[in-house]
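Hi Q.,

Before the meeting this afternoon, I wanted you to have the magnesium ion prediction in hand. No need to reply - just skim if you have a minute. The sequence and ligand are here:
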Amino acid sequence: MTTPIVEMRDICKSFGPVLALVNVNLRLMPGEILGLVGDNSAGKSTLMKILTGAYQRDSGSVRISGAETNFRSPHESRKLGIEMIYQDFALCGNMDVAQNIFLGRWPRRFGLFVDRARMYREAQADLLRLKVDVNSVFQKVESLSGGRQQSVAIARAVSFAPKVVVFDEPTANLSVTATDRMLETMTELKRQGVAQILISHRLTDIFAVGDRVMVLKRGRGVGDRYIRHSSEREVLELIVTGTPETALTADEATRGASAQEITA
Ligand SMILES: Nc1ncnc2c1ncn2[C@@H]1O[C@H](COP(=O)(O)OP(=O)(O)O)[C@@H](O)[C@H]1O
Ligand SMILES: [Mg+2]
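Predicted structure with the ligand bound:
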């Protein structure tokens, strides 16, 4: 059996009295696209930040290609090939495209002078690899549309040669065309063997590119479905009703849920 590239088990995380995640399991296979869905505050971003090491879990385990890990920061997870793209892209508007792609690690000659020629050449190559056309690597990022800014954020992530890319609500602020282009980019990355997790409210997007979808509700995993065996309607129902996978009797559900809230 293939080893999952990411396996998170029994993840728990609270923020003071808030139970953000309760015994959540997540599995991502190499090259797979996993949709991660659920209402606001369901715990999606928290789960992904635990994966990248931006947040520390209270308990549970994270394995990358079978090896137990304990990332203290996104810098550490980056070394093992994990990248996350945030909704606000986290770019520097007053710098150009290439400078953003290589932010914090501009290539240098003799360890001294910024090797501008190489930086712009490699930036161009990163964009080409994604099959996105950013008109010019010399353009300031703030002058670009949302969709193009996002391409830059993705190109930056991809320049680290990741094995896993997490997209947190990437299409929330994008036009229809930009959304389509973004989904094409995901498909292209998949073709290149990059496993991806897509957090989105748009089930249409998840069903367009995803292989599998998992549903969180109030910090708990309530469903995990293969896209080809499911429907937007079924997933929507899981999001709304949160019917747990392990079907409880109505009586157990009422007693069990409240008992868990108190003891957790
Ligand atoms: N840094 C934080 N400090 C306090 N509470 C947080 C923090 N991050 C997330 N939370 C809380 O954890 C819960 C899950 O949030 P989040 O993971 O952002 O949900 P989602 O991404 O599904 O909307 C929410 O109740 C949220 O308020
Ligand atoms: Mg979120």
